[in-house]
């Protein structure tokens, strides 16, 4: 009698996304986190994990291993891709959840150390094998892909909205602003950083910021190439984000309610990925949401003849879930390839 083979994952970076990936894997029946690479003190990393989850008593630190009822994960004090010996641990995929190593050369370091594939939780800096957004372009994935990105939480939310809308209507263009919770690379007090605005306190300011979704959206939805402008405002909340998108249609007769109805119908087409909020929710209501897009029907407004504003909520837990969906996708591709040989 055959037993189901777990997907063996290595994580580099045990920040918020890394911990969410770990928790989701621990609650799954098919994914095993084999190794976690992070220079943080293992006791503190364990403390941070158990402070955020239900049933913290199930997660223990035993020597160099973080354990739960499903698997044991080796903790290694390393934070650079070139230094992690993935070949020793026999991982099927490395998920880089640091948010720091977006260049192709760092992904090649992982591969050179024995990783079969590398999956970024962020958008890449260079052209790599594939950007995969589950529900949209997962069918393009190939078993030969080694350097992959699962886009970002913001990009995924935007791509899902645009995919649903453009499958039904013709868009001239779209512009979006992510009203985004502050991030771990921002300073809580004014501190000289990478640019003038991001050097200001994240806890005290609304900080205008660029966003690269527009650069990559054409690789995810080719018909939207050069038709999207993206921007971000980092605001003083720690979780929960809002996507404010202006959709400019060819057809001036489309109504706000037609867009709401279109998004309601999309829930069945994108189960576990898109959901609808009919109530007047706020950012704290979406904390730990597993969906990549929670469309807000009360925020859909028509302005003039051709423009409709749409609101969508999202949170990092949904992106962590999509990262594991991508890992499962490539595991299925590998199994299909093996059986075909």
Word description of this protein:
- With 341 residues, the protein is of the alpha/beta class.
- The chain has 2 domains: 7-152 and 320-340, Rossmann fold, CATH 3.40.50; 153-316, Dihydrodipicolinate Reductase, domain 2 (2-Layer Sandwich), CATH 3.30.360.10.
- It contains 8 helices and 16 strands.
- The protein has helices at residues 16-26, 42-50, 86-89, 104-112, 153-166, 213-220, 256-269, 316-340, and strands at residues 7-12, 31-37, 60-62, 65-67, 72-76, 93-96, 118-120, 130-131, 147-149, 171-181, 207-210, 228-235, 241-249, 274-277, 293-303, 307-314.
- The strands form 2 sheets. The protein has a 9-stranded mixed beta sheet, with helices on both faces. The chain has a 7-stranded mixed beta sheet with strand order 11-12-10-13-16-15-14, with helices on one face.
- α1 (16-26) packs across α8 (316-340).
- The chain is globular, with a radius of gyration of 20 Å.
């Amino acid at each position: 009698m055959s037993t189901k083979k777990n997907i063996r994952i290595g994580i580099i970076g045990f920040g918020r996304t890394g911990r969410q990936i770990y928790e989701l894997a621990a609650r799954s029946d098919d994914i095993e986190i084999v190794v976690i690479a992070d220079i943080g003190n293992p006791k503190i990393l364990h403390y941070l994990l158990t402070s955020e989850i239900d049933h913290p008593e199930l997660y223990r630190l035993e020597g160099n291993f973080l354990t739960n009822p499903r698997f044991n994960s080796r903790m290694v004090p390393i934070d650079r891709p070139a230094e992690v010996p993935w070949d020793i641990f026999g991982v099927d995929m490395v998920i880089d959840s640091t948010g720091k190593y977006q260049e192709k050369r760092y992904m090649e370091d992982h591969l050179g150390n024995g990783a079969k594939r590398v999956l970024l939780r962020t958008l890449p800096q260079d052209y790599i094998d594939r950007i995969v957004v589950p529900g949209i372009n997962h069918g393009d994935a190939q078993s030969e892909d080694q350097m992959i990105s699962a886009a970002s939480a913001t990009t995924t939310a935007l791509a899902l909205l645009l995919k649903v809308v453009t499958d039904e209507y013709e868009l001239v263009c779209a512009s979006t602003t992510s009203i985004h919770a502050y991030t771990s690379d921002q300073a809580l007090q004014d501190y000289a950083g990478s640019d003038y605005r991001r050097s200001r306190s994240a806890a005290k300011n609304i900080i205008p910021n660029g966003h690269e979704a527009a650069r990559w959206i054409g690789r995810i939805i080719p018909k939207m190439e050069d038709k999207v402008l993206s921007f971000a405002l980092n605001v003083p909340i720690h979780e929960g984000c809002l996507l404010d998108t202006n959709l400019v249609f060819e057809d001036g007769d489309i109504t706000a309610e037609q867009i709401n109805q279109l998004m309601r119908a999309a829930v069945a087409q994108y189960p576990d990925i898109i959901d609808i909020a009919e109530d007047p929710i706020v950012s704290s209501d979406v904390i730990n949401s597993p969906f990549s897009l929670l469309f807000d029907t009360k925020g859909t407004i028509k302005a003039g003849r051709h423009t409709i504003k749409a609101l969508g909520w999202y949170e990092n837990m949904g992106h962590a879930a999509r990262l594991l969906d991508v890992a499962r996708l490539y595991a299925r591709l590998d199994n299909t390839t093996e059986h075909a040989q």
